[in-house]
Write a structure and sequence with these properties.
single chain, about 70 residues, mainly alpha, about 70% helix, 4 helices
């Protein structure tokens, strides 16, 4: 346990962060707690290459968040 709880963002939170910060910055902000820098950069390249939509990115977030919490 890290001594603090990692906040689980809702899809609406995620959409709002993407709207305010832009898609790349939002992904970096939200996934920085889950991924190391090297994996985060690779994930961002995969998003650009596959032109992933917000729902797909959010589903990926939930999947990795459940792995971190278990």
């Amino acid at each position: 346990m890290r001594g603090y709880d990692v906040r689980l963002y809702s899809f609406n939170d995620f959409k709002y962060i993407c709207y305010v910060e832009g898609k790349n910055s939002a992904v970096e902000t939200i996934f920085s707690d889950i991924f190391q820098t090297k994996k985060l950069k690779a994930f961002q390249r995969r998003i650009k290459k596959n032109e992933m939509d917000l729902k797909s990115i959010y589903d990926e977030y939930l999947q990795h968040q459940s792995i971190v919490n278990n």
